[in-house]
Amino acid sequence: MATEYRQAMQRMAGLGNLEVWYTKMDVETVARGWESAAGEKEAATFRRNLEKTRAKDRMRALSKLTREVDGKLRIVSEPPLIVPLDELAGEDTDIEATVEKIIADYRDTLPEDRRVLLDGYRFVDAALKVVGVGSVGTRAFIVLMLGRDGGDPLFLQAKEAQPSVLEPYAESSVFDNQGERVVQGQRLTQAASDILLGWVKVRGIDGKQRDFYVRQLWDQKGSAKVENMDARALTAYAEICGTTLAHAHARSGDRIAIGAYLGKSETFDKAIAAFAESYADQNERDYAALKAAADEGRIEVAELPA
What we know:
- This protein is of the alpha+beta class.
- The protein has 2 domains: 2-55 and 222-264, no CATH class; 58-216, no CATH class.
- 49% of the residues lie in helices and 16% in strands.
- It contains 12 helices and 8 strands.
- The chain has helices at 2-13, 17-22, 27-38, 40-55, 58-65, 85-89, 95-107, 112-118, 178-189, 231-252, 255-262, 267-295; strands spanning 66-69, 72-75, 82-84, 122-129, 140-146, 153-160, 198-203, 209-216.
- It has a 6-stranded antiparallel sheet with strand order 3-4-5-6-8-7, with helices on both faces.
- Strand 1 (66-69) and strand 2 form a beta hairpin.
- Helix 1 crosses helix 11 (255-262), helix 3 (27-38) packs antiparallel against helix 4 (40-55) and helix 3 (27-38) runs antiparallel to helix 10.
- It is globular and about 65 Å long.
- 22% of the residues are buried.
């Protein structure tokens, strides 16, 4: 990955500003590169995973995450993974009015044309939803909205945004809302980002204010199964990641300075490889410590349903 990143950054350094801005890697480009580099077996696996990703859309979310109650769609309750807001807040809280105010504040952060799109939907239900490992300890909510009828859903996901872990070592963010920091960063570094990316500040039922960024839920997002890759496939995947990261840094930073700093030698590549090995060793130590704590009863471990 480090080698491909360095080489891609040097290519970007030779391009004009608009050329860099319009450079992107679409799905078919990635698929063709994967098929030629990873081999026939991995290519077939990639295509199958791609079809699954394309099927992971709002209609699938509708079928998996909702059910009809008294003639109305409601998000299913599956604690601790999914907990509807009315179960969290109790009967004394006007959940609908609270969420509609939040949606209105979020709407103000969207470009005008996206506001028109959002205005075509009405609020139906919302829930707290446990998400991935990277978001452990933070809050995430899903919101169900409907358009012309029950077959026209829009699922939004609001994820809590906290200050960057790099902030203590760099300048403070120029954005007061950490959700805006995340959104503006994604818009800058991604050639194509979610059309409904926005942000909002919310006061929770515990009285504390938190920043969130908002995006669509299950709009054909997917991830590679690196744990199943052989060495050849993993190398091809790393090259794709390196190129994509270089594109993002070329859009958001001084690509000429970065390219010059990296140079043409393998010094950077070896430094990244050494860091990766150290990081992997640390992960193994952390896991061993966690497992020991669980085995000794110092922490409680519960298996979540599949």
